[in-house]
Design brief:
- The complex is a heterodimer of chains A (220) and B (512).
- By secondary structure, chain A is of the alpha+beta class.
- Chain A has 5 helices and 10 strands.
- In chain A, the strands form 2 sheets. Chain A has a 7-stranded mixed β-sheet. In chain A, strands 2-3-8 form a 3-stranded antiparallel β-sheet.
- Chain B is α+β, with helices and mostly antiparallel strands and 512 residues long.
- In chain B, 21% of the residues are buried.
Chain lengths: 220, 512
Amino acid sequence: MRRRTFLRAAAGAAVVTVAAGAKPPEHFLFRRARFFDHGRYVSVSVAFPELLRASDRDAMAWLDSGFETVLRYRFLVLEHGTRREVARATHTVTIRYDFLRGDTYEVRARTDRRTLFRRNYATRAEAIAAATKLVQWPVVDTRRLVRGGPHGPAYVVAIVAQRNPLDPTSEGPAADPSVARAQPRDVQWFGRLVGFLVGEIPEAEVTVRVRTQPFYLEAR
Amino acid sequence: MAAGVSWWRSFEAKVVALLMVVGLLCIGGSAYLLWLSTSYLDARVEASIGRAADLADVVRPFYRAQMQALAESYRARAQALDARARAEGWSVERWRAVLEETPDLAEVVVDAGGERRTLRAARPPGEDDVSFAATVPEGADEASARLVARFVVDPAHDRRFQAVGRVRRALRVEQRQLDAFQRAVVRAVLLLVGIVLVAALALGVVLARTVTRRVAVLAAAMDRIEREGEDRAIPDLGRDEVGRLAEALRGMLERLEAAQARVSYLERIGAWQGMARRIAHEIKNPLTPITLAVQQLRDKDPGTDPAFSKTLRTAVEIVEDEVGTLRRMVSTFSRFAKMPKVRAQSESLRRILSEFERAYGHLTDDERDRLEVGGPPEDLFVWVDRALLKLALVNLVENAVLSARGHAAGGVHVRLSVQPDPDPSFVRLLVDDNGPGVPLARRQAIFDPYETDRSDGTGLGLAIVKKVVLDHGGDVWVADGPLGGARFVVRLPRASGSDAGDQSDGSSNGER
């Protein structure tokens, strides 16, 4: 082997090593949903049972602990074909064991602006079902959509459902940026390098990414 | 790189490989120590996280008890309200007043005026507020409650508890990510160390090449010398060990070349000596009969013819002159052919020069001609055969006189002096004259036998000088002199003063 070949091989190995440490791209699964036209808004019904499975002992223990379990649903409405973003929405559901009312589980669902519902359920299973099965949840104002009927524009909804997403201000590697800023420059730089090499850090305990089938609005 | 040697087998490759091995060992050691450190710290951090998590878990039963106590207190307050209402017969207005007076009472459902009424506080609870409905059952039937009082729970209770929950969850996240970050830290350090290693390797290769390249140049020069048999110059390669090696090789080659030239010269001289011996023998024999014959011829002249007698006498004189010349030539040839072996001993240079000046200070009959002899500042001892050294000095001075005569306007000037040699084990004798000098092209040839530009010279004088000096282990050469003519430099080995008077049987090269 010549010197140049050896040096090229060494450089290539370095590039491969760095590339291997980089984060992989995200992947969306297909999931069938039901859409409802309420006139002023469109709602969706879709289930995410994988967020809270009874077989997940840690999750069940957390539910029973009294501490909140947060389920966050982020909706992104896209124009089918062009993938142009039309609207966004985020709904948050909290489930917790209610010590005050004893032997019940409180489920509270909120949008960006208001509370969708707040109920107590006698059993954990009922509470989980209420939290993971979205029933006619509003996702987009119809004024943002075009009513073109079957021949008009179609839309797709991408949903990212997460259980206990990290709060970046208090959790994970970027927690408390004020502390990070207080560190010396070389430590901050080293931290950024570690962050690049650590690979994909879970944004939440469980993350499910789905894409629905296209839908359209009937003309009126 | 030497011809025919692939890079992987070269000296440079070995140096690079050594650097890489050292670098990899350093990296490996560093990585292991880093892994040890991070594992240790990881274990301690995990233990701390575990203890913090346990603390959060300890809070839970307290919160449960607190909430249960709170629920009991609400029920007790509802009971108290009911008791007071029944005892005092509260009206709807009284209930409204109680609602306003009790900040955390949001709503009551009571039987008032024969009908069930729901009374709410002026500021109803918001959709985010937590409320607790305490019921006072009618008798044993809780379904038909006599009073339902809804209290707004201070959100601070739940807020604090959920804050503990978030901390507990953050600790769980930290625990899960600890391993990933440990691996990432090791990868980051390995990457950085790798970069440093590559940079150090590149720098090391560049620096190593300053040595290996010079070694390769040296090896290539030696290859050429061996292969082509030519005495190529070895380049200057610096002042370190490699440079000193090159310098030593260069000196060795120069000495080898000088020794080869000396051996070659001595072989030639030996051949010439053999020839001179034969010529001297062949020429010497007929000279006496020739002389006797012409003398007889002269003695037998009756003298009757004065012209014939004059011619005969002239012829006899001519023959006697020429025979004399031939005898001198034969004598020179014989001296050259029968030069004795060197019997060197330690001699005082000052004494030799002093004796020489006394014997030969009167150069010629011309008073303008002068011999100047300068001795060494301190007495030096040389390892020489005194008689042979004097023979060499005589020949040199004679050669100087013959060269300068007819050339120097103010008379012949010959100077004999002593000069130190750069090698402290040698000393130089200098013979300067004010003759025409020796052209550069002839400075080697003049020491060959029979090499002369004079019609009456034998050409053996300088050859004898060189043979004598070489037999002493010295050297002789000619250069331009300060008197305007030539400078003959004779380099002789020194002896220590304690060796004075020691005698040894010298060999042909005058070794001790």
